[in-house]
Design goal:
Number of domains: 1
Structural class: alpha+beta
Number of helices: 7
Low-confidence stretches: 1-6
Number of strands: 8
Shape: globular
Order of helices and strands: HEEHHHEEEHEHEEH
CATH architecture: 3-Layer(aba) Sandwich
CATH topology: Aminopeptidase
CATH superfamily: Gcn5-related N-acetyltransferase (GNAT)
Radius of gyration: 16 Å
Mean pLDDT: 93
CATH class: Alpha Beta
Length: 193
């Protein structure tokens, strides 16, 4: 198995964005602000507890231990401005699977194909570099932009989880489980070429 520290140093570059390994020293007031922003975190589990720089440091530090998982800062190629983060975690080498996570915190970068490019970069890394065969992701049913993005990239909705997430006291919404297999990704790339 390739260790996280070896591949974790890989910068993934696309036409408009780069995914750069995100480390403790990259944590800034802006990043912590996104974690506490009700508009940014409304579909993130961090919304239940006010986030501090120390909590963010502990989370980022967890990506550089013995467990294989990856975290990148999403930056614009033109300005190098940090606009969000992406993760690949819950990697299971026995089954060739992993879970993808994404947060676009900078509002000016939302809805501009940013999420699509980030996901495509992570998928290329997961399938081509790590040789995984299945990538999954979860969303709230009410997270329409992310549900649209997963479909656009080629993911299938495999499950609807009834009342999986509490959005306010006593109010629950369904959750969706999305998945993409390596052969589906390869077929899509051949079709787009």
């Amino acid at each position: 198995m390739t260790k996280t520290c070896e591949l974790g140093a890989a910068t993934l570059t696309g036409p408009h964005l780069s995914l750069i390994p995100f480390r403790e020293e990259d944590i800034c007031a802006r990043y912590v602000g996104w974690l506490n922003d009700p508009e940014v975190n409304r579909f993130l589990e961090v919304r239940f507890h006010p986030q501090t720089p120390e909590m963010a440091q502990a989370f980022v530090r967890s990506f550089y231990g013995d467990v294989e998982k990856y975290m990148w800062g999403v930056s614009l190629n033109e300005t190098r401005e940090l606009v969000g983060t992406a993760t690949l975690h819950t990697i299971d080498r026995h089954h060739g699977s992993a879970e993808l996570g994404l947060m676009i915190g900078e509002r000016t970068a939302q809805g501009k194909r940013t999420a699509v490019e980030v996901i495509e970069l992570v998928l290329t890394f997961a399938f081509d570099m790590l040789r995984l065969r299945r990538i999954t992701g979860g969303t709230y049913a009410t997270n329409h932009p992310m549900n649209f993005t997963f479909k656009r990239v080629g993911f299938r909705c495999e499950a609807k989880c009834l009342q999986a997430y509490q959005v306010s006291p006593g109010t629950y919404v369904d959750g969706f489980r999305w998945a993409l297999l390596v052969e589906e990704w390869q077929a899509r790339r051949r079709h787009d070429a």
